[in-house]
Design a protein that fits this description.
27 helices; 13 strands; 10% strand; alpha+beta; seven-stranded mixed sheet; two-stranded antiparallel sheet
Length: 479
């Protein structure tokens, strides 16, 4: 951790110019101007700088307008109640805030009163000491660090703790408890024992936080390099039971360990970490978290085989609907999680059985554009510590993928549908628009997938004429 001015001089020129502009503007307006929070933390740690948080002692919105003018930005996004504003900027997000203290009531994490204050008062309200530092931007004090709660020392010790008594910090804004797990995952830091004890005591306070804010903070844990760190913190503090009960019940629940950890919770977290190594895609990591979500509900004991979880893929798919509704997930994310949960055993079954072209085609059609993600999830799902089993398993997956590559219709299958369209089906079969048309189309598609007919219009039309006369499909539906 070097000299602050040296660290600032080594950052991207476009960011540095914004800091200089802010400092000179502060001098001109006779306002104290600081860069604060995550910017200072990441600068000291040496991480990528993702946004600029500027704090001024005075009118933050007025300052934001003047800085935006100098940056050539016509409009800012003000939040008058809090004295903050966003300056739209393509390269890096810029937030300007007035130095403030916040006061809360017991039933909401939204401040009931905002009071403008000085630098120390502003840093005192912040969540953790590593985020409660400021660097002066105003000449002649440019580059001077203010660190009233030993945030630098906590960075060096890799510790997360609060500036105030943690009970007070977490009671005011309970979302900070989940943020503690996020920062532990993101930075690889440990939570101070006093803070950890406080989170356990205050866990029930998370109820006053909106599900949208909880969801967003939870998802941020999944975006870190090792999500299991934050997820274990949620579990051990009792927060998981409050925010994701379907994961909480996995803890301590055993399973047969042919390919996995014996403990379902430990296995699930290892799959999430494996997925994080294999892909930066948050949705895939979320799928890794929920892929075995129904195992606790489907666990049975077989005298010969031990624990079984028959149908946990299909039951899990249905459970995702309930989870998505509660957590207010987007339809895209819900459908993605449902698909990968339902299909996560399919490639494994192809590994163990004789692989036919028909089986490969069906899997590819079912997975569609998410086929690569499905195969990545299956690889992440291998958590056995036996290297021979891992090698064998991976080799079998490679065989399945080779089979996929050899299926000529691969690209067409990704957008697969009957060559004969609904209008033609209605004309030939003498039926009206409705469910029956879809049934006939599916019959044609199944025939193509099973290799009975070629994937061409002529072959499909000939097949349609045949089932029109011979199949019980139309007869039963027309009777």
């Amino acid at each position: 951790m070097g000299n602050i001015k040296d660290l600032l001089n080594n950052i991207d020129d476009s960011i540095l110019s914004i800091l200089h502009l802010a400092g000179e503007l502060g001098k001109k307006c006779k306002m104290e101007v600081y860069v604060v929070g995550g910017f200072v933390r990441d600068l000291l740690i040496g991480k990528k700088l993702n946004d600029i948080d500027i704090m001024v002692v005075g009118d933050g919105i007025h300052f934001a307008k003047k800085l935006a003018d100098q940056l050539g930005v016509k409009k800012i996004i003000p939040f008058t109640k809090f004295g903050t504003a966003l300056i739209p900027n393509n390269d890096i997000q810029i937030e300007i805030a007035s130095a403030r203290s916040e006061f809360y009531d017991n039933h909401s994490r939204k401040p009931s009163e905002v009071v403008y204050t000085d630098l120390k008062g502003d840093l005192l309200r912040r969540d953790f000491t590593i985020n409660a530092m400021a660097i002066n931007l105003q000449p002649p004090n440019y580059g001077t660090l203010t660190d009233p709660f030993n945030g630098v020392m906590d960075i060096q010790k890799k510790i997360i703790r609060t500036p105030l008594n943690p009970d007070e910090t977490f009671s005011e804004d309970p979302l900070r408890m989940i943020r503690a797990g996020y920062f532990a995952s993101k930075l690889g830091f440990k939570i101070d024992s006093l803070c950890l004890r406080s989170i356990k005591n205050m866990a029930s306070r998370i109820d006053i936080v909106s599900i949208e804010r909880i969801r967003d903070e939870f998802i941020k844990i999944l975006t870190t390099n090792k999500p299991s760190i934050g997820l274990i913190i949620l579990q051990k503090t009792g927060l998981m039971k409050m925010v994701f009960p379907e994961i909480d019940v996995m803890y301590g629940m055993n399973q047969t360990s042919e390919w996995h950890h014996k403990d379902i919770f430990a296995h699930t977290l290892q799959v999430v970490d494996n997925a994080a190594i294999l892909s930066e895609k948050m949705e895939l990591r979320f799928a890794a978290l929920v892929h075995d979500i129904a195992k606790p509900n489907t666990r049975r004991i077989d005298k010969k085989r031990g624990y079984t979880f028959h149908g946990h893929d299909a039951v899990g798919e249905k459970m995702v609907d309930k989870i998505a509704l509660r957590m207010k997930l987007s339809n895209y994310l819900k459908n993605y999680l449902k698909k990968l949960t339902l299909l996560h055993l399919r490639p494994i079954s192809l590994v163990k059985d004789v692989v036919t072209d028909s089986a490969i085609r069906r899997l590819m059609v079912a997975a569609g554009e998410d086929l690569d993600d499905l195969m990545t999830l299956c690889r992440a799902d291998i958590t056995t510590k036996n290297p021979k089993r891992v090698k064998k398993y991976m080799r079998n997956f490679q065989n399945v993928e080779k089979k996929m590559a050899n299926v000529i219709e691969k690209d067409a299958i990704m957008k697969f549908q009957s060559p004969v369209k609904g209008k033609k089906i209605m004309e030939i079969c003498g039926i009206d628009e409705g469910r029956l048309v879809g049934t006939v189309k599916k019959t044609i598609e199944d025939a193509i997938l099973d290799g009975e007919i070629d994937n061409t219009y002529d072959a499909a039309l000939k097949f349609l004429l045949k089932i029109k006369n011979d199949s019980s499909i139309l007869k039963n539906n027309n009777s």
